[in-house]
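Researcher: Quick one. four chains, 1184 residues in total.
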Amino acid sequence: MPSSIGFIGLGIMGQPMALNLVHAGFPVTVFNRTPEKTALLKEAGAKVASTPAEAAAGADFVISIVSDTPAMEEVVAGKGGILETIKSGAVAIDSSTISPVASRKFACKVAGQGASWLDAPVTGSKHMAIKGELTYMVGGDREAFDRAMPVLQVMGKKHIYCGTHGLGLAAKLAQNVIQSTMVEIFCEGFVLAAKAGLKPQIMMEVIQGSMARAALTDFKAPFIFRGDFTPYFPLKLMHKDLTLAMESAYAQNVPMPTAAAVKEVYGAAKAQGKGELDYAAVVTFLEELAKVQVRE
Amino acid sequence: MPSSIGFIGLGIMGQPMALNLVHAGFPVTVFNRTPEKTALLKEAGAKVASTPAEAAAGADFVISIVSDTPAMEEVVAGKGGILETIKSGAVAIDSSTISPVASRKFACKVAGQGASWLDAPVTGSKHMAIKGELTYMVGGDREAFDRAMPVLQVMGKKHIYCGTHGLGLAAKLAQNVIQSTMVEIFCEGFVLAAKAGLKPQIMMEVIQGSMARAALTDFKAPFIFRGDFTPYFPLKLMHKDLTLAMESAYAQNVPMPTAAAVKEVYGAAKAQGKGELDYAAVVTFLEELAKVQVRE
Amino acid sequence: MPSSIGFIGLGIMGQPMALNLVHAGFPVTVFNRTPEKTALLKEAGAKVASTPAEAAAGADFVISIVSDTPAMEEVVAGKGGILETIKSGAVAIDSSTISPVASRKFACKVAGQGASWLDAPVTGSKHMAIKGELTYMVGGDREAFDRAMPVLQVMGKKHIYCGTHGLGLAAKLAQNVIQSTMVEIFCEGFVLAAKAGLKPQIMMEVIQGSMARAALTDFKAPFIFRGDFTPYFPLKLMHKDLTLAMESAYAQNVPMPTAAAVKEVYGAAKAQGKGELDYAAVVTFLEELAKVQVRE
Amino acid sequence: MPSSIGFIGLGIMGQPMALNLVHAGFPVTVFNRTPEKTALLKEAGAKVASTPAEAAAGADFVISIVSDTPAMEEVVAGKGGILETIKSGAVAIDSSTISPVASRKFACKVAGQGASWLDAPVTGSKHMAIKGELTYMVGGDREAFDRAMPVLQVMGKKHIYCGTHGLGLAAKLAQNVIQSTMVEIFCEGFVLAAKAGLKPQIMMEVIQGSMARAALTDFKAPFIFRGDFTPYFPLKLMHKDLTLAMESAYAQNVPMPTAAAVKEVYGAAKAQGKGELDYAAVVTFLEELAKVQVRE
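Model:
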């Protein structure tokens, strides 16, 4: 008999993840703060709960993917939170990108009920969520990780066990520090070159012929060059992740001079109203500063 | 009859470049500030000049690759500089990474003698210089670029015509802004992860499984993980290039908040005595700040 | 009959503040996490409570000054917290420098008990606390502020009503952003000058003859020049306040490029073990980077 | 018989300085690149030269105050430059804020003619120039400084001998690093406070009641609060001075993380067209980023 699953958070990523679990034959009970988003899941065969607690009641696995630390605080410890019902022996798998400190606190709380906790943030686009091809970075007990694998394999194709509680998030935040900066400095460099009179395509040829070539900027460049900032990953979320990374850096006494500068650039772009666009829209902020365009 | 070549600057890159020209059958006259380095070229069949002017006298192409703007100022306009002898119709090909403003000034000066000027910085390691596989980014007249191709093809395998005078350098500086930042932020991210307790190899698995994977950091990572900073490209030169890029940014009114922060990190690493190491040694400065090591 | 006071937190500032209240004739009940520090107050005539709740029970004013947001969370809403006993009509006066967001949340919570809340951070040294000459920046209801004045006047000589809840803290954080940066850039400038060979005393003469003269740097300079970093305000607390300011900036969409850079410099100094020294010890971090000393 | 003076550069500061010398009875010969500006001096009794060389011919003191390093390069070593005529025993007093490296080079060149060189930058407003109340920071030989005092005393009321060649400029650049950052961070802090809802006047009361009070920000604040950016010192010149300071920092291996960030903020403000305004107009750039105004 397949494990039962409570699934909390049906956003851009959560919905296809939950659908894949239903399609794989797991009995799934979903909860979402705005109930409209549950329709598709209900149609596919999921039960719909009216609180996280109801979704978690009796479930073998409680999966969550919500927007930020306060939202997750509500899901875990608020009224109707999963702490009220999570059963002993269950595994909570949280794919939200939240504060590692908060995540470790949640791990302690569910441990008080006899349950396990995995911080299990993911990378990959909505498209990869649909195909079940996400990459998982997982922190927590190895035993719980192993037990969760049949479920994780439905949603992702790569699962990296990072170590103890919080290290999945640590990996995710370090990765996003690197990705956000790669995109930002690519844009700074292209703006500098464009202001000098260099065509973006020629600058791109230079980069692609060099060791600076990266899958990320190869992917983003055409969007940047034609000014298409349909969000793959919204700028405001990248800014949030940089902020979480800086909080971790503060807690661990790690100076991060470059990440600090990059965070302010994304913050300025967000303050200009670009938060809902893809984070590559940071280029438009730099273009406005420099009064030049990096365009075909 | 093959074109005659004056070649000025027999450093790490210059020596193999000049040797390739000799081996390809060009008559080459070399000059180097410290004469000892001319021995290998002499043995291979090159003539040795005692001034840049002597190397340039009568040459169809005058190639230079020296350390910085003041050194190139001497080569061009100092006593015994190439301006004294460069012939009308010659093409000066300067592969030094110097100030674009200075380079354009040199272009004007040689134009006064009827000669052409190309700013032609290169990327690639010493190893690629030996194999004649450098990448050239070239600014200047298209006609001079075309004329220089038989010579450039001996030293490089990719030649990108960037546009008017200075745009080869603009491309090179933008590229190095991007490369230096990619390495620096890779190190910041890995230091943050290491301080959290994540093993570098696991963090590397995360990056390599993501879009942040890049040839540059794939290449640098093993050196970083074992603390081997044998210089492929010395940190002090990367700091110099960042400084040149910031000077260009100043001249062109381009704000570069991230590059400015990165420049200070490399500058601090240089001030700690790491200037002669590979620029990936920036990791050791970050490690010292954070009191942690990113090591196997 | 004088108002009764519960006083929580007997640190460097809290102890003299509480003593002044006792000396002014208020009946005071004190609580401190480490009970040893209550001896002096007990001797002076204060009662000693074993929990914040006990200190707050029946008090007209509940004054608190603790180290950070989590500590204040415990004081307010932890087991034995003031929420358990604060009486309707009481005024809670919190002089801790904590997150404005958390402070507003505490204001809501005590309002649920019919009590008022003032965020009332102070500036001034321990010496000024002893003399009752602190400066208060106060946020909250005007009526509660007016009611609290007889108590505030015992501890401070200047009381600035800043507006609604959180604005006292907003003022304090903005002030510390300015002060921390003034000291940091003073040190950067003096390190630059010293490396050029300029004597600190001459540079000081330049600054004091200019509009850059400030009470803060006039005060800090002699300590800096003789390397005396006895803590007036510990570097780790300044780093904490910068971090709180950046969190506010994040919450309010305010880009702060300079404060972000300054925060990392203090963070790096703290990571080098200078957290317990006065924040002017940031100069020693800059000196170590530049390999020069700003000394008499 | 009074010493004869050649005076080069009749800008905002140069004109009143030269007038004071004429009024004090010195025979003065002036030169300015745009000849129109010489009218007032001619009327006052000065001779007008058509080249710097002509102004310097036979003069005991050759005073210069021009906009930047390239302009000074022309004045000294260009065609019709002072090197052509400066007499043995003369003292060149350069009050331009230029590169210390270039200044030392000029000192060497005039020494070749038997003349002395002082780098003698000034601080103070146009108003103070008119009243002869500038502050001088002077580098060079003590003997030449002493000899120049009768002339310097006409133009300034405070004269700080800083040491060898270049140290006057080193002091000036360090001072402007400090001043520019004080104003910038004052604005960042006030923008943060304003976005939180704090009135600028209340925030000003906080600052003025604290050790952060400074003559500079006391002076700038009313202009900032009413949006009056009539240039006392144009933003583009402050940006130039920050750039010179960073060049010195590079040459001397001094990491300056905060100054680097501040330079980019002024650079961004300049790129938005604010270069001709007073440098306090940096507040408008920060206001535009944060979408709030710091106004009465």
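Residues 46 and 202 of chain B are 51 Å apart (CA to CA).
Researcher: Thanks, that's what I needed.
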